[in-house]
Design goal:
The complex is a heterotrimer. Chain A is an all-alpha fold. In chain A, about 40% of the residues lie in helices and about 0% in strands. Chain C is about 45% helix and about 5% strand. The chains are: A mainly alpha, B mainly alpha, C mainly alpha.
């Protein structure tokens, strides 16, 4: 199986990037530093080394879906539970985050 | 072992099956379907209002559903009305959970 | 023998219930101390009175920009307008001053208060519209400039005076206080934030480029001239916009929940000086 070149991988991950950065969608830059994003907030940890920090994709999905399950006092919005992002959108965001 | 069906019949069979499947999946929504879905969504949003916990997103999707229906696009309208109902219900679940959950956040 | 054991059991159960009730009883004084300690411990280098300056108490660069702005305060026009409004009689010849103690001068720090006659929290904005209506005038919108001008003027006459919010020994006042506390800590909106999410858990942090203000002293600078709004904002306006920002449908301005949370936050700021009207980014 051919591995995608880094540039190709980046281009393929684009839908997830606009979902992550878009104010109407993930709006992740409000709280997180993410490479490629401008004027980020610092409420939450920077999103880098994501493959290393979340080797289990399901764990990352759970954080995005509803982090209150793991941490009842979190300020991370429950993007899945509160229907902010669809399942497919969350998957695209995860694909993008794994390039950071 | 049976002989394979002739390719013409097989093709015809698949086309027919295909038509049946697509027709079933895209049974067009009607004004009546929309009215029912919209009423359910409005009722849920009213309940959320009684709890003083409506979401702006719910209101936006309700408005979009009404607009779709007015334009005659009942498939979209029904889908949006159902989405609005889901949002209203989620906002109520939040209010009910927060009735007690807020205490855990208080500074002690 | 049986009766004795029954009575003992009943007494034990009653004592346990009483202890549980005590644990549930509202205790504003204890809350006040815990709230105060939380912020002074988290920000040991911020002088207590500086908390009223919101984001400027948290961020040195932002403070420099603010100090430059205060050379020509953007809310001056609002204070002047409020002063004129106070000097202009209603159609019936009475004035705002006739509705308030000390002609409405130097009293802002006493609001909100719990009105035992009507059994509700009275905020300054509500009192001003009640004054208008008592004198056959139409009430002002709570989120627009007239109300901002009136409260800007009244805040200005109270500058430096410490908040002095009272909770009378009245179950209804305690209930209003607790309702305000509940509103403050309850998550709302599709984004699932409570007031505390930003102002207790993350003061001094940035959301995008905005610095979050601490909840301690949060209302002392109100009303504010907000650069982002190119204009003045009352407490009502701020509550309404905060709700929208977390994707919650706002309540009616001066809704009971808004008045109760203003009561709670103001009480938590007792002793801290009124700094309004203020300027914010």
């Amino acid at each position: 199986m051919l591995a995608a070149s880094p540039a190709l991988a980046q281009a393929l991950a684009m839908p997830g990037q606009s979902l992550a950065f878009g104010r109407d969608k993930g709006n992740c830059l409000t709280c997180h530093v993410i490479a490629g994003g401008d004027a980020p907030g610092n409420v939450a940890p920077p999103l880098s080394d994501m493959k290393k920090r979340f080797p289990d994709r399901n764990e990352l999905a759970a954080v995005i879906y509803d982090e209150t399950k793991r941490n009842p006092l979190t300020v991370m919005p429950p993007f899945g539970r509160n229907l902010i992002l669809t399942h497919d959108e969350i998957e695209a965001v995860i694909d993008f985050l794994y390039t950071r | 072992m049976k002989r394979a069906m002739s390719s013409t019949i097989t093709r015809a069979l698949f086309v027919t099956l295909g038509l049946l499947v697509t027709t079933a999946a895209h049974a067009a929504s009607t004004q009546a379907d929309f009215d029912a879905a919209y009423a359910a969504a409005q009722s849920a949003e009213k309940e959320a209002g009684a709890l003083k916990n409506q979401w702006t997103t719910t209101e936006q999707v309700l408005a979009a559903a009404k607009k779709s229906a007015a334009a005659g696009d009942f498939d979209s309208a029904v889908s949006q009305a159902r989405q609005a109902e889901a949002l209203a219900k989620a906002s109520m679940a939040q209010a009910k959970e927060q009735e007690t959950a807020w205490k855990a956040a208080v500074i002690h | 023998m049986r009766l004795k054991s029954f009575i003992s059991l009943a007494l034990i159960l009653f004592a346990a219930a009483a202890r549980a009730r005590a644990a549930d009883t509202v205790n504003p004084e204890a809350d006040f101390k815990a709230f105060r300690d939380y912020f002074t411990k988290r920000f040991p280098n911020v002088p207590l009175n500086d908390f009223v300056n919101g984001p400027y108490s948290m961020d040195a660069d932002l403070r420099k920009q603010w100090e430059a702005i205060e050379d020509f305060p953007p809310y001056d026009f609002s204070v002047d307008r409020g002063k004129d409004m106070f000097a202009t009689p209603f159609k019936n010849g009475k004035t705002y001053g006739d509705c308030f103690p000390n002609k409405g001068v130097g009293i802002r720090q006493n609001y909100p208060y719990f009105d035992e006659k009507s059994g509700q929290v009275i905020t300054l904005e509500l009192a001003l519209n009640q004054c208008r209506q008592a004198n056959s005038e139409e009430p002002f919108s709570y989120v627009k400039d007239e109300m901002a001008s009136l409260t800007a003027y009244m805040a200005f006459t109270s500058r430096g005076k410490p908040f002095d919010i009272k909770i009378p020994n009245d179950a209804r006042a305690l209930a209003a206080y607790e309702n305000g506390e509940k509103y403050f800590y309850s998550r709302r909106g599709q984004l699932n934030f409570s007031c505390a999410s930003c102002h207790v858990q993350n003061p001094g942090q940035h959301i995008r480029t905005e610095v979050l203000a601490p909840a301690l002293g949060l209302l002392n600078a109100m009303p504010i001239y907000r650069s982002e709004w190119n204009g003045m904002g009352t407490i009502s306006r701020r509550f309404v916009t905060c709700n929208s920002q977390v994707r919650g449908v706002p309540l009616e301005p001066q809704d009971e929940n808004y008045r109760d949370v203003e009561y709670y936050l103001s009480y938590m700021a007792n002793g801290l000086p009124i700094s309004g009207p203020g300027a914010r980014p």
